[in-house]
Structures are given as C-alpha cells and as structure tokens.
Amino acid sequence: MKYLTLLLLFIAIANCNAQNNASIVKATKTFLQTLDQEQLKKAQRKFDDTLRYKWSNFPVGMVAREGVRYGDLSDKGRIAFHDMLSTILSSQGYLKVTGIMQLDDVLGLIMDKGIVEKLQWNYQNYFISIWGTPDEKEYWSFNFGGHHLALTLTMHGKDVSFTPLFVGTDPSQPQTSQYAGWRVLSKEEDYGFMLLNMLSKEQQAKAILKQEVPKDIITSPNSSQRITSYYGISGKEFNKDQVEVFKILIQEYLHNFEHNVAHGLYDEILKNGFDKVYFAWVGSSERHAPHYYIINSPDFLIEYDNVGFQNDGNHIHAILREKDNDFGADLLKDHYLNSAHHKN
C-alpha cells in the first residue's frame, strides 16, 4: 500500500509539472502573437544561437540586450507578457521582478538626470527574447533582462531549468522620495542576518571569513571565476532551529519560481541532504554596512552581495545557479549527443 501511495504521488506531481509547462508554452505563444513582424524579428532567435548565453546585470546604457524592448510593446503585448511572467513565477517572484523594474524609475527620481539618461535607467528598458519555438516537445528558451535582472528559462517537455537567475536592487532601500523605505529584496537580506546571528560564537568562527567584502558576486557575468571549493560551516553543524532558518533562506530564492518548479528544485536539495550545504559570511553582522554570504552545495549555488557605491550596504546583487544546469545545460546533454543536427 505504501509503494502504491508513493507511485500515485509521483504520477500526480508529474502531471502537475506537465500541466504547468503546457501553460508556460501557451502563455509564451500568446505573447508572441501580440508582436508585429519587426518586433517578432527582434524577439525570436534560433535556439542554438550562442547569444542565448549572454547576460548582464549592468544598465542597458552600458551593455545592450538582445530581444524586443518592453517599452515598445503594445498594451495588449504588455498584458500578455505579464500573464506569461505570472505563469512562470510565483507571486513573490513576480513582485520582485516588477519591483526591480520599478526601481529604475526610482533612480530617475533621486539621481542626476544626466547619469540617468546616459545609463538609460528606465522601467521600459528591459528586453524579452525567445530562443527557438515554444513547444511542449521541442527545446526552447526565454530570457528577460535589463538593469539588475536576468531571468532565464530553458524547457524541453517536462524538463525545465530556471537558472541563472540574477536579481539586484539599487538602492536596496531608498532613503528619499515617496519610495523611501521600500525594500524589494528584503528577505534575502533579513534571513541571512537571522541565520548568522543564531550561530554560536564557535559556529560563527567557522562561518565568518576574514577577508574584505567582495565588490560584486564572484560568479558575475563579467568574471571568469567559478567557485569550486566549499567555505564556512556546513548544515550538519547546525542545530534543529538553525537548520529551519537555513531552509527558509534557501527557499526564499527557490520560491521565486512557480510552485511545482520550486519544489522540484528543493527536492533535489533534500535528496542530498543539508549536511553537504555550506554557508559562509563576509563583512558586517548588521544592516547598512557591506556584507556578503554564499550558500554552496553539490547541486546549487547562491551568492548575495551588498556593498553600495559609498560602502553603505545599500546595493544588492544576488544569484541562484543550478550547477551543471545553467541555461539548461544538463537537460541539453541528450540533445547535443543524439540529435542528427549536432552529429553532422
């Protein structure tokens, strides 16, 4: 009876994933149908184009993006695009993405107009690209990016990858204007401090690295550096309460995605256990000062960095990566090994 229950549960989960992936395909097709021919030419590219792997967190005034500009969409196109986003993301993920876009307009209120125009900080300046043809049986991908945002999806049937996911906020908490106090990425910061401050002095001695706070995440798109070593303290050294907060912190990143996808990623972590997940901290143990943390496991990597141009701890960069599966690398192995196109 136990095995039958597990089998039925597995089938139910698989059906939910299939239904959600079908919904993503449908929402993406609906969005593409709102574009005119010129927009479609900009938005849709070949799946095997190497530009699919290009991403940046810089303003578009510094690094141009592929795709169709959000600000150039019709109202019908914007509605279809937001329907697509809310199909791909959870409610918290959707609000973070749109909040990051809105922060570019906040910069327009509080920063020098010349700098704003040069860097093209603007809610409208985010770009959408579809790589391949959205289909439940084909390989295809979706990118959405601009200043402080790189959202990636790669799909083939029931298999899907949602990384790398980069999010950032500048300022992480505006100090002036009607937006003063607003915190788009509050829990990435708060839960990190919560876990750090729950550790004993002996645990902190292991977790806190004695070095300067990095000026950016180490695995940024402009860096060739990759993190292969494990630093800090592992989950096996946490007590029960500390493990629960550790889980909450990790889930804050995973639950930006739609429910079934988020739990699929979390199940992979549970399969290997938290004993192999490491947490390390650099910098201040209080807000409004530079700080950094990294969560590293065999399956995934999370980096969070908060420095600020005036070392005020008011400028967040954060990334979630699936090891060996960024841009769908793992689910593409069979495609590249066995497809006739790539054998020739």
Description:
Helix 1 runs antiparallel to helix 3 and helix 6 runs antiparallel to helix 8. The longest helix has 31 residues. The chain has 344 residues and is of the alpha+beta class. It is 41% helix and 17% strand. Strands 1, 2, 3, 4, 5, 6, 7, 8, 9, 10, 11 and 12 form a twelve-stranded mixed beta sheet that branches. It is built from eleven helices and twelve strands.
Any chance you could write out the topology, listing elements then pairs?
Elements: H1 2-32, H2 37-43, E1 44-45, E2 68-69, H3 75-88, H4 91-110, H5 113-119, E3 127-131, E4 140-146, E5 149-156, E6 159-161, E7 165-169, H6 186-198, H7 201-207, E8 233-234, H8 240-254, H9 259-272, E9 278-283, E10 291-296, E11 300-306, E12 316-322, H10 329-338, H11 340-343
Parallel strand pairs: 1-3
Antiparallel strand pairs: 2-3, 3-4, 4-5, 5-6, 5-7, 7-12, 8-9, 9-10, 10-11, 11-12
Helix pairs in contact: 1-3, 6-8
Give the gist of this structure:
This protein has helices at 2-32, 37-43, 75-88, 91-110, 113-119, 186-198, 201-207, 240-254, 259-272, 329-338, 340-343, and strands at residues 44-45, 68-69, 127-131, 140-146, 149-156, 159-161, 165-169, 233-234, 278-283, 291-296, 300-306, 316-322. The protein is of the alpha+beta class.
SSE class: alpha+beta
How would you characterize the largest beta sheet? 12 strands, mixed
Tally of separate helices: 11
User: How many E strands?
Assistant: 12
Helical content class:
40-55%
What are the main properties of this structure?
twelve-stranded mixed sheet, 344 residues
